Amino acid sequence: MNHELPQLPYSKNALNPIISEETFDYHYGKHHATYVNNLKNLTKDTVLNETGIEEIILKAYQDKNTILFNNAAQHWNHSFFWHCLSPDGGSSPRGPINELLDRDFGGFDKFKDQFSDTATKLFGCGWAWLAQNETGTLEIVPMKDAHTPLTEGKKPILTLDVWEHAYYIDYRNARPRFIEGFWEVVNWEFANSNLTSNK
């Protein structure tokens, strides 16, 4: 991932009515773009301009450089999030991710309930993550603001953005309805591609 706004992996109207084109205009076209532009300005004429985003995130986190961390992490988080969605997504998980959800949560339905509950109850702004720890176990990780499992040495598998700008145009303050819609477009193939081999 570089310091540029990535192309969406689908058209802005591909996820209607779960996520509208207008939401993508603001969420992707303005919010994500702003994080990218801020990151460019913060790293301009420095060695960080040629440094990978994950490395910047970890260094900024270690150095407690909040401004740099927030913009780099939000760029990474959003770029990852767009791939967690697919017009061909939804339904039941397939492949290794399904096996791990059975093992670590007692099945997809139990995982879905726990993840939805976590995303609903996360106060204020943040992200609900499905991550894989160093032992290969899947965990649901709620994180505030721009935080990411990368700083905890965990591998992100899926995420759901529950900042208000992710859903307010389409759902106003009804975050639970947005979360319900997520399950209709969740990209299980992407989740499978993120799993580490030590499962």
Automatic annotation (TrEMBL):
Residues 3-86 form the Manganese/iron superoxide dismutase N-terminal domain. One of its GO terms (molecular function) is superoxide dismutase activity. It catalyses: 2 superoxide + 2 H(+) = H2O2 + O2. Pfam families: Sod_Fe_C, Sod_Fe_N. Its EC number is 1.15.1.1. Residues 94-193 form the Manganese/iron superoxide dismutase C-terminal domain. Keywords: Metal-binding, Oxidoreductase. InterPro entries: Mn/Fe_SOD (IPR001189), Mn/Fe_SOD_BS (IPR019833), Mn/Fe_SOD_C (IPR019832), Mn/Fe_SOD_N (IPR019831), Mn/Fe_SOD_N_sf (IPR036324), SOD_C_sf (IPR036314). Destroys radicals which are normally produced within the cells and which are toxic to biological systems. Belongs to the iron/manganese superoxide dismutase family. This is Superoxide dismutase. It comes from Belliella marina. The lineage of its organism: Bacteria, Pseudomonadati, Bacteroidota, Cytophagia, Cytophagales.
